[in-house]
């Protein structure tokens, strides 16, 4: 089976079923990661302990996926299931749109609560604009991490590629913090996630630009992304904000400390409806990628 049908099947499964409510493999993987950290992240742990933990967590499962995907008759099914479990497009909508609905209904406490599920900043004191900004930024960044990067690595390396990426991204979310506990141990997880997301993030920035205010998005990407602290989130959010004609960024309160960040994009401040516009931008981008995959597949088999 060609790449395009597999991509379509994985995205369609995500659209129809969403994330598994029970027995999600990533939940079990998270438990494994916690055990590895308890074993290896001791007071004298070095970066090499983090490298070893990363290898033990990611490599065996990636090799197992490669072996299963190579099996005759069922290999294609393994590939589709791997992509389905890695792509979070429906989940992105299910988390973001209720925030917009709460804001539109004037229920700011509920909107703060719901946005707190998807961002790491303190949301208890956010006003309506702050909630809309946090949610819109999360949609743009998670669209890159949880949707497009998974599609990219599946297209490049198949089922083992998407499993490798999703596990690495999960470890970055668990270990990739710059605090005392993870500064050494989590270094490998953070850097490897940066490497795996480098090219996908720039393709996502271009995708956002093509699906929105193209010239403005490209200009924001060029001028603003270098000033952002993350090498991959900067291009994605600068281009996304420019594509939506919005101003994002500006910092927030994280773990009790204010962190100032540059402004991104151009235009007006985000409102409740802009959260849905961000979700729609991600969906348009996915449709564009699938269309390109179908065109390439059609030309290949013509």
Automatic annotation (TrEMBL):
It is found in: Cell membrane. Converts cobyric acid to cobinamide by the addition of aminopropanol on the F carboxylic group. This is Cobalamin biosynthesis protein CobD. The chain crosses the membrane at residues 48-66, 146-168, 280-299. GO terms for molecular function: ABC-type vitamin B12 transporter activity; threonine-phosphate decarboxylase activity. Keywords: Cell membrane, Cobalamin biosynthesis, Membrane, Transmembrane, Transmembrane helix. It is a multi-pass membrane protein. Belongs to the CobD/CbiB family. InterPro entries: Cobalamin_biosynth_CobD/CbiB. One of its GO terms (cellular component) is plasma membrane. GO terms for biological process: cobalamin biosynthetic process. It comes from the Bacteria. Pathway: Cofactor biosynthesis; adenosylcobalamin biosynthesis.
